[in-house]
Every structure is written in structure tokens, then in C-alpha cells.
Amino acid sequence: METKSTYQGPPAQKIRTMFSSIAEKYDVGNDVLSLGIHHQWRKQLVKLSQAKVGDSVLDCATGTGDLAIEFKKAVGPSGKVIGTDFCAEMLEFAPAKAAKLNLDIIFEIADVMNLQYSDSTFDFASISFGIRNVENPQQGIRELHRILKSTGKLLVLEFGQPKAPIISNLYRFYSKKILPKIGGWISGKSSAYEYLEKSSGKFPSGNDFIKMLSDSAQWKSIKAYPLQMGIAYIYIAEKT
Questions:
Q1: What is the pLDDT of residues 109-120, one digit of tens each?
Q2: Which residue, among 135, 69, 141, has the nearest Cα to 105 in the 3D structure?
Q3: Containing H/E element for 233?
């Protein structure tokens, strides 16, 4: 397993180009490939966050806005949610999704490694299925720590590697043999889904990602919540 000292994310331009090529079919692909369970994972993240009416949230790598939308439901009209992504093509679909639900969310282009927001601005910062795609995830974590208020929380949703033999073998088979084919059929870009499978297998998860978080910034506490026996994790880091 690669650790904080050795893991290096992919070049930013490569990721931007890849996501721009699948943006139009991204939501359909996610729903089909996960059987819709990714929506439940995001709802669980917001519930675990304990976000309340009036809170402020920055959701990075928001893509088409799913997690930003879930947070806006929690913080209400008096709360503020900003969803950001560094891929303009992905972000194009987010405003219409929010407007359809009558949710007032700000969507802006931003790079998590160099956020344009002031120190100590947000109650919550989040990133779902995005941190492993950041060229320098440690720098991204430091930026997310910086923009949080002194009592703020960082929430990360990311794929893991199941340890139970039966689940692990089934998950690997699905990820390597089935996911790229279905993703390629839906989007016309099987190479993008081959990358997504490989990147989730290499990225630190569980205790290894907790170590990355603690090595990158100072946190009061860090907790990890495995989902579906470790297929994914929700991490919650409380700022000191």
C-alpha cells in the first residue's frame, strides 16, 4: 500500500481532460455502475456531519453537484453551500440540478490545491470521490484545513479496498472486468473507467488515509466509517 510519503496523484490536466470527456454521461454511469448506492453514501455522509440549518459548506470536486445538493437540504435557506470543481464541463450540469429542486447553491470553478477562499470561512468542507484524483492530495488537504473555521469538519467520501476475501474477490472482479466495459458502453470512454478502477485500488484507504490526513494537517480527531464492508469509506476530521 502506498503511503503519504510515496503517493502522487495523476497530472491535473490529464484528469481535467478525462472528466470533460465523460461529463455528459457521468450521472447515468454512476447510477448504473453503483446501482444508485452512491446517493445513499452521500446522504449518510451529510447525516454523520451533523450539519445544521445556517451552516456554511464548501464541497470540492462537486462534479454535477450531488453532495452539494445534499448539504443544502441540511443547512436550509439560511445556510450557504458552494460547490466547486476544476473541470468546467462537469460543473455545467450542476446549476440545473439544484434549480430543479429549488435549492440556492453557488457553483464556481476552483482547484482544491489552490482555493480562492479566505482562512477560517466554512463550517464544513467536503470532497467525494475526488481526493484520489488530486495531483497533490496532501496540498489539497492542507487547503481544506485552511478554509475551515476553528471548529470545522472535513468530510471525505472515497473508495477503499475490502479486506474480507469473498467481498474483495467479487469487488476486484467487478471493478476490473465489468465496470470498464459498462462505463465504456455508456460513455464511449472505457479508458476513463479503467483509470477510475486502477486509481481506487492504489489510493490509501482506512488507516493509511487517516495517516495521510494527520500528516498533512493538524486535526483534533479523525474517524473512518467503512461502507459496504470497506468498498468505500467516509472520513471525518475535526479541526483543532
A1: 999 999 999 999
A2: 69
A3: strand 232-239
